[in-house]
Prior knowledge:
Helix content is 70%, strand content 0%.
Amino acid sequence: TAEVAAQYVELRAVQEQVGVVEQAVANRARTVELTEKNFNGGFVTALDVATAKAELQNVSARLAPLQARESEILYGINTLCGEVPGSRQEQLKVKGIIPTIAPLLSISAPA
C-alpha cells in the first residue's frame, strides 16, 4: 500500500541519517583522542579537551532519537503488513538506498 511505501522511504532516510551521525560520532571520538594526546604533550589546553568532549557528547545525543524513530518505523511496517513486530527486522535493518519516485508525465495541450 501507499502507507507501507511511505514508511519504507522514511525508514531508508532515517537509516541514512543514523549512518551520518554514527560517522560523526566516530570522527568526534577520534578528535577527543587526538586532543588528549596533544594536551599530554603540552600543545593544547584543558579547555580544548573539554570542548572536544562536549562536542562528542552533543553529536552522540543525536543518535538515540534517530534509532528510536527507526524502531518505530520498523514496527509500523510490520503492523501495516499484518505481521508480527520484528518479523522483518533482519531484512529491513540492512541499510539500503533511498528509493526515488519516477517523475510524473507532463500533460500538455495537444498541438
